[in-house]
Every structure is written in structure tokens, then in C-alpha cells.
Design goal:
- The complex is a heterodimer of chains A (474) and B (48).
- Chain A is an alpha/beta fold and 474 residues long.
- Helices cover 31% and strands 25% of the residues of chain A.
- In chain A, strands 1, 2, 3, 4, 5, 6 and 17 form a seven-stranded mixed β-sheet that branches. A five-stranded parallel β-sheet of chain A has the order 8-15-9-10-11.
- With 48 residues, chain B is mainly α.
- Chain B contains two helices and no strands.
- The longest helix of chain B is centred in the first third of the chain and has 10 residues.
- Chain B starts with 6 loop residues before the first helix and ends in a 6-residue tail after the last helix.
- The model of chain B has no long low-confidence stretch (mean pLDDT 85).
- The interface between A and B is medium-sized, with 14 and 13 residues.
- Chain A: Pfam families: Pyr_redox_2 (PF07992), Pyr_redox_dim (PF02852).
- Chain A: Its EC number is 1.8.1.4.
- Chain A: It is an enzyme of class 1 (oxidoreductase).
Chain lengths: 474, 48
């Protein structure tokens, strides 16, 4: 006899747990199935984001930034310290406590909202039945009037470079080094590679990032990527573009990486190697025969603009479907689907999803890049403003970077905003709101911004679109 | 009360003497945005 629910969610990451809570809020009897096991060997809700992604990486980025400032950043302020030292075990322990606090928090939210959490691996069968297999091999089954697939994603493994958890690691491994590696190799100059590379660089590692593409941060606006690259170079992060890795072998407690660049075959020897070339949908084993749910050529669940699979009552959200692999994108899809199931209008605007990279300086953007506008033949105007002319940034000693705003040449509607600089992860929110309201650059230009704040860089960039920024020549 | 106007729409409407009530808004929740006022200005008034 199987238990029946109005909604059964497979996966308790940011897409799945949010969908489950929203469904429960709307009065639907909801279950959420998840098989992630935390560092303490117990089931842990929150998925990749909470356990081995967003939250733990931000914890280490913050700790490593504090240490880096203590060693290098405080002299201008007149602050000195005797022999600064970092205890990596304590830093990682703090990160683990933060993760535990948040995964436990989701368990409490499930209780408060009466969501039934089921530990185990969920596989969808035909007829909206889910078979749950626990780690000890026992099985049970649940059925749902609606099923939400939120299986997430897993790191891509390169052939011949299997993750061994010690020398060749994925994001999870690089969050758990017990000492600072003397030499760290990173394959992939994407968000994960740059953030985790930065963590260990600040703690003293020699970091080399090998990127197969010839351009740096291809998804970002080219001007912003160029400024970021210059700052990373200054920090000593060695980024090698056009470097195609062919093999990595563990020899004498080190990893020998062979790659080819335009000068030919090269060898890099490192103590630890982080492989961060991308992630793929975690749909292996998710679907039994005969469910009717389709996967695309990249293993993603095929859905329409409403995250509907086309199979009655079956939906899919988050990293296991098309679109950017971002926690907030998955969460919004989860909410939209729960609302659709409850008979409410639900919608996610994929055109206004903000991107953030939490390096130093931070990088953030929303909307179209200048190249995308050029390629599409859309007429636009550009406004830029440097943080070096922002009083608050100078007071903070964080003057690198700029805000760049792109607006339609005729209607003035904001089409994209791109930033590199201090705490731009927070500044981007204002631009997302403006774009959601179909705002123009003049709208932001005519809104009062507090002084002195970093947000004045957004205000001045908006003014600069019309060549009337106050604190620079136009 | 009239329609909700964005700050830039308010400026264009005031400067060019456009009655916001005569403009149909295409912004969120029917809000009149800058380009709506611009469009209303470029179109000849509908015959009464």
C-alpha cells in the first residue's frame, strides 16, 4: 500500500525544497524525497547549494578574505598584526557548522509547513508512482497527483581524471581540504573554478587555472570580463586560456597535468587538482521505463516554458532542465510550478535572472551583454561609471571596477546591467527590479540614491547613458 | 488617481503636456513607462 500525496517532489535542493514548501503553503499534501548524505553520515536537505555549493563556498570566501585583508589589506588603515596565521581545520569547521545550521533549518521549515521528508533515492515510474530506495537497499513507494522532478546536477568528470576525493577533486572536495595546498591546479575558469581558486590563493596556494576557451568569462560582458581578468592577474591568480587538458596522473603524491596551448604540449605539476569544467543534469536513474518523460541530448528533462513535461501531472525544475544552473532560478521555477498546480498563475521571467560571481572584486550582471545586443542588431546606448570615483568605495579601499548600463537607443528601456566591483552582488538587485518593471535608464537616473553608498555607481551609470553623469566627464 | 507612472514617464508626460490618463501602460500591472508616453506622443490622436 503506497502513500498518496497531492505533490511529490524528487530532490530537496533550492528548486525542490522551495517547491515543496510553496505547495504546502497552498494547502497541498506534499512529500519531498532526497538522498543527499551530509558529512555526519545523516540525510541532509538543501541539495548542492547548501551542502557543497553556494553556502559553503561563501563561508570560505569570507574567511579567506578576512585572512587576506589581515595579511595584505590593513596597512593603509594603520592596522598591524603580529604573525597572522590561518587554521584551515577551524575555517572548514566553521563552514560545516553553517551548512548544518541551514540544512537543519530546512528540516524545521518542512515540519512547520507539514511537508513529509522522505530519505532515499526517488525513481519515477509510469502512472506518477515513485519508488524510493534507501541506502540500505530497502524500498518503498509513494504516489502523487503531481510529481515535481528537481534532481539537480552533478560535476562533469573528465575522461581519465576520475575524482579520487584526495588529489583530483570536484567542488565538494575543494571545500574540504584540511590544509592549504602548496600548488593548486583548477581546470575551468568558470564561477566554481574562480571562486574556489580565489579561496585557496588568498590562503597562500599557488593557483593555476587552465581554461580550454580562448576568451575569459565568455558569458559575461567583455568589458567587465577584461577588468576582472586584470584584477585577478594582479592578485597572482595564473589564468591560462586556450589550455586544453589531455590527461592528469597522480604521481608521487602530486598530480601531473598535461595540456596543450598555442605553444604546444605543456606539463603542470600540482598538489591538488580541482576539475570544474561544468555540471550536468543528475537524471541518471531518475526515470524508469515507460514514464513518457523525455530527456534531451544533454540528459536534461524536456519541459515547456511552464516547466511542464507534457506528461500529465509531471513537472521538472532547476538544474535538471534547460536554463542557467543557478539556485535562485530553480527556486523561482519551484514556486511557479507549485502555484500552477494549485490553479494560480505562475511564471518565471528567464530574461531577468541575475548572475553573480563572488570573487574579489565581485562580478554581477542581468540581461543582455553588449555583444548580444550588437549581434541582434538592437540599437543601444551605454553608460559607465567607475568605483574609483565613488566616495564609499574609496573609503572602503575597494576602488577596482565599474558599473556598465545598456539601454535601448530609442525607448531608453534598460536591456542589461553589468558590474565588477565591491559588493556588486547586492547592487545588481536594484537593476533586476528596474528591468522587471520595464524601467528606463532615466527611471534609475531620477530615483534618489543614498550618499555615500556604492549604489551611487548604478545611479551615475544610469545618468551616464544620457551623458549627464555628475562625477565624471561625459 | 490616474495611472501609475514610472519616474521617467512622469517627466516626459509633464514636459510634453501629455495627459497620463490618455496613455495605455505596458509596464508591470499596467504601469505607464517612458516608452508608452513617447509612443503616445508620436501617434496622431485618434479621431473622436
Amino acid at each position: 500500500m503506497s502513500q498518496h500525496f497531492d505533490v511529490v517532489v524528487i530532490g530537496a535542493g533550492p528548486a525542490g525544497y522551495v517547491a515543496a514548501i510553496r505547495a504546502a503553503q497552498l494547502g497541498l499534501k506534499t512529500a519531498c524525497i532526497d538522498n543527499f548524505i551530509g558529512k555526519d553520515g545523516k540525510p541532509a536537505l538543501g541539495g548542492t547549494c547548501l551542502n557543497v555549493g553556494c553556502i559553503p563556498s561563501k563561508a570560505l570566501l569570507d574567511s579567506s578574505k578576512q585572512f587576506h585583508n589581515l595579511v595584505h589589506g590593513f596597512k593603509d588603515h594603520g592596522i598591524s598584526a603580529q604573525k597572522p596565521a590561518i587554521d584551515v581545520g577551524t575555517m572548514v569547521g566553521r563552514k560545516d557548522r553553517i551548512v548544518k545550521q541551514f540544512t537543519g533549518g530546512i528540516a524545521q521549515l518542512f515540519k512547520a509547513n507539514k511537508v513529509t521528508a522522505i530519505a532515499g533515492f526517488g525513481q519515477l515510474q509510469a502512472g506518477r508512482k515513485v519508488i524510493v530506495t534507501t541506502p540500505d537497499g530497502s524500498t518503498s513507494e509513494v504516489t502523487g497527483t503531481n510529481i515535481i522532478l528537481a534532481a539537480g546536477s552533478v560535476p562533469i568528470e573528465l575522461p581519465g581524471m576520475a575524482f579520487d576525493g584526495e588529489y583530483i577533486v570536484d567542488n565538494a572536495g575543494a571545500l574540504d581540504f584540511q590544509d592549504t595546498p602548496k600548488r593548486l591546479g583548477v581546470i575551468g575558469a568558470g564561477v566554481i573554478g574562480l571562486e574556489l581558486g580565489s579561496v585557496w590563493k588568498r590562503l597562500g596556494a599557488d593557483v593555476t587555472v587552465l581554461e580550454a576557451m580562448d576568451s575569459f568569462l565568455g558569458a559575461a560582458d567583455a568589458d567587465i570580463a577584461k577588468i576582472a581578468r586584470r584584477e585577478f592577474d594582479k592578485q597572482g591568480l595564473a589564468i591560462k586560456l586556450g589550455a586544453k587538458v589531455s590527461k592528469a596522473e597522480v604521481k608521487k603524491k602530486a598530480v601531473e597535468v598535461t595540456y596543450t596551448d598555442k605553444e604546444g604540449e605543456q606539463t603542470l605539476v600540482v598538489d591538488r587538482l580541482l576539475v570544474a569544467v561544468g555540471r550536468r543534469a543528475a537524471t541518471k536513474g531518475l526515470l524508469a521505463e515507460g514514464t513518457g518523460v523525455q530527456l534531451d541530448e544533454r540528459g536534461r528533462v524536456v519541459v515547456d516554458e511552464h516547466c511542464y513535461t507534457g506528461v500529465e501531472g509531471v513537472w521538472a525544475v532547476g538544474d535538471c532542465v534547460r536554463g542557467p544552473m543557478l539556485a535562485h532560478k530553480g527556486s523561482e521555477e519551484g514556486i511557479a510550478v507549485a502555484e500552477l498546480i494549485a490553479g494560480l498563475p505562475g511564471h518565471v521571467n528567464l530574461d531577468t535572472i541575475p548572475w553573480v560571481i563572488y570573487t574579489e572584486p565581485e562580478i554581477a550582471w542581468v540581461g543582455k551583454t553588449e555583444k548580444e545586443l550588437k549581434d541582434a542588431g538592437i540599437p543601444y546606448r551605454v553608460g559607465t561609471f567607475p568605483f574609483a570615483a565613488i566616495g564609499r568605495a574609496v573609503a572602503m579601499n575597494e576602488t577596482a571596477g565599474q558599473v556598465k548600463m545598456l539601454a535601448h537607443a530609442e525607448t531608453d528601456r534598460i536591456l542589461g546591467v553589468h558590474m565588477v566591483g565591491p559588493v556588486v552582488s547586492e547592487l545588481i538587485a536594484e537593476c533586476v527590479v528596474a528591468m522587471e518593471f520595464k524601467g528606463s535608464s532615466e527611471d534609475l537616473a531620477r530615483i534618489v540614491h543614498a550618499h555615500p553608498t556604492l549604489s551611487e555607481a548604478v545611479h551615475e551609470a544610469a545618468l551616464s547613458v544620457d551623458k549627464r553623469a555628475i562625477h565624471k566627464g561625459n | 488617481d490616474g495611472p501609475a507612472l514610472s519616474p521617467a514617464a512622469q517627466r516626459v508626460a509633464s514636459q510634453h503636456g501629455v495627459d497620463p490618463a490618455s496613455v495605455s501602460g505596458t509596464g508591470r500591472d499596467g504601469r505607464v513607462i517612458k516608452e508608452d508616453v513617447q509612443r503616445a506622443m508620436s501617434q496622431p490622436a485618434a479621431a473622436a
